[in-house]
Write a structure and sequence with these properties.
This protein is an alpha+beta fold. The protein has 4 domains: about 1-175, 2-Layer Sandwich (Uridine Diphospho-n-acetylenolpyruvylglucosamine Reductase, domain 3), CATH 3.30.465; about 180-280, Enolase-like, domain 1, CATH 3.30.390; about 315-390, Ubiquitin-like (UB roll); about 400-465, Orthogonal Bundle (DNA polymerase, domain 1), CATH 1.10.150.120. It contains 16 helices and 20 strands. The chain has helices at about 10-20, 35-40, 75-80, 85-90, 90-100, 105, 110-115, 125-130, 225-235, 245-250, 265-280, 335-345, 400-410, 415-430, 435-440, 455-465, and strands spanning about 5, 25-30, 50, 60-65, 70, 135-140, 140-145, 150-155, 155-160, 165-170, 180-185, 195-205, 210-215, 225, 310-315, 315-320, 325-330, 365, 370, 385. A 5-stranded antiparallel sheet has the order 4-5-10-6-7. A 5-stranded mixed sheet has the order 17-16-20-18-19, with helices on both faces. Helix 9 (about 225-235) packs antiparallel against helix 10 (about 245-250), helix 10 (about 245-250) packs across helix 11 and helix 13 (about 400-410) crosses helix 16 (about 455-465). The termini are far apart.
Length: about 475
């Protein structure tokens, strides 16, 4: 477990810290992967975490004068999914970002972090390879520009050096004659790792394909192109039979057997999904998996940056505003924000269901965003504003969501209820009168083992009416 936690104030300070610690320091942004890896003992020798989640100027999504889109190292999946710039000019990436985890996970996990983790099942790598992305990486030795296709050497293996960090992801925006989509096959609709994911980007002349990129995830050690299928598409009308293209895409796959599916099953699915992706583009339905206004549970963000570097050891004081009151806490052995709140701040309304970001029982608001507190390092609370279930009411009055849950009987054992309420409260900040689809989106990160969810959804609808 880490002994020191540093919150740098600039990229230069970050790379200097990485260099000074000789490979024993690790960058953390969202931490949705890293926290689990540390907990499971998969990351050994990390003595220092370097928190880049509040570096100034790193959460932007912009297009330059040359038509290239740039994504900063701090951009989260929800920011990407909700970005109009990406929806209009890099749709496959926006769809992929929307397919990651749950709203709480997407509020913490970053696009850059997803790339650096390097799992072939990670959703955002596939569209970025199809879009021709390059990474700008910096260290004390200077700067490197690395094509994403050259970044990976195997499963979770990259060419990134220990004292180097990704600071920018860049790729050309889709032109008006280009169409693309992303498609994911998983064992459930949310909170699921890909059995297969695929991005398709086509250069078109009317209905004629001039150029094609078909990239496949979760079927090889790294993201791969279905090169033969791409060749077969060139010069072909989208209305033509695609049986040979689908078969060629399946042949490109080199999957393994694992808990999510057999190699044979994955190979078969590649062809089917390729056909579906092409059909969606042909029908003009390439963005059908992305809502017009994705629910993010961001509400009114309180963006905070550090003007001076802060360094905390495990016995250092963590100063945070919790439920409107300034608190000083000591991390000690409690490395997650969840345990800091429950065991140090004695806010036991925050529940631990899984400890792995799967159930949502530990949902809190961190600087305005709903997050899974079990996947947030305790020290991230330093200088932050945090709201727990104990802080959502108004004095002695219940929040309309809490009142509606009581009136509708939207509880059974009640263990998951705080998490559901937190998600619903944040949803009503985002959309005062959400429809049923928005409610379902909002609670995809919350699991209940007792109910059928119907009363929960009805309670949230009723709360939406109460805030008139």
């Amino acid at each position: 477990m880490w002994q020191r936690y540093i919150i740098p104030a600039s990229i230069n300070e970050t790379v200097n810290i990485l260099s000074d610690h000789g490979g024993k320091a690790r960058i953390i942004a969202g931490g949705t992967d890293l926290m689990l890896e540390i907990e499971r003992g998969q990351r050994q020798g990390i003595e220092t975490l370097v928190d880049v989640s509040r570096l100034p100027g790193t959460a932007g999504i912009e297009m330059d004068d040359h038509g290239w889109i740039h994504i900063g190292l701090g951009v989260t999946h929800n920011q990407a999914a909700a970005s109009k710039l990406l929806q209009e000019n890099a749709l496959p990436l926006a769809i992929a970002a929307w397919n990651v985890g749950s709203p709480q996970i997407r509020n913490r996990g970053t696009i850059a972090g997803n790339l650096v983790t390097g799992s072939p099942a990670n959703d955002t790598i596939t569209p970025l390879v199809a879009l021709g992305a390059v990474l700008r990486c910096v260290s004390t030795q200077g700067e490197r520009i690395i094509p994403l296709t050259e970044f990976y050497t195997g499963v979770r293996k990259t060419v990134l050096q220990p004292a180097e960090m990704v600071v920018d992801i860049a790729f050309p925006a889709l032109m008006t004659n280009q169409k693309g989509t992303f498609i994911k096959f998983a064992l459930r609709r949310a909170q699921a790792i890909s059995v297969l994911n695929m991005a398709v980007v086509l250069d078109m002349d009317g209905n004629l394909v001039l150029k094609a990129a078909i990239t496949l995830g979760s079927v090889a050690p790294t993201i791969i192109h279905a090169a033969e299928a791409e060749k077969l598409l060139i010069g072909r009308n989208l209305d033509a039979d695609m049986t040979d293209v689908m078969a060629a895409a399946a042949v490109a796959a080199r999957p393994i057997d694992d808990i999510r599916g057999s190699a044979r099953y994955r190979t078969k699915i590649v062809g089917v999904m390729c056909g579906r992706a092409i059909a969606a583009i042909r029908a003009g339905k390439e963005r059908q998996e992305l809502p017009v206004e994705p629910v993010t549970l961001l509400g009114k963000l309180n963006e905070k940056v550090f003007s001076q570097t802060a360094s905390l050891n495990r016995d250092g004081k963590i100063k945070a505003f919790i439920n409107g009151t300034e608190r000083e806490l000591i991390r000690g052995d409690h490395h997650s924000l969840l345990n800091l709140l429950r065991k140090n701040a004695m806010l036991t309304g925050v529940k631990e269901g899984c400890g792995e970001g799967e159930c949502g029982a530990c949902t809190v608001f961190l600087d305005g965003a709903a997050v899974m507190s079990c996947l947030v390092p305790a020290e991230r609370a330093h200088g932050a504003e945090i709201t727990t279930i104990e802080g959502v009411g108004n004095g002695e009055e219940l929040h309309p969501v809490q009142q509606a849950f009581i009136e509708e009987g939207a509880v059974q054992c009640g263990y998951c209820t705080p998490g559901f309420i937190m998600s619903a409260v944040k949803l009503l900040e985002e959309k005062e009168h959400p429809d049923r689809d928005s409610i379902k989106q909002a609670i995809t990160g919350n699991l209940c083992r007792c109910t059928g969810y119907y009363k929960i959804i009805t309670a949230i609808e009723k709360a939406g009416e109460a805030v008139l």
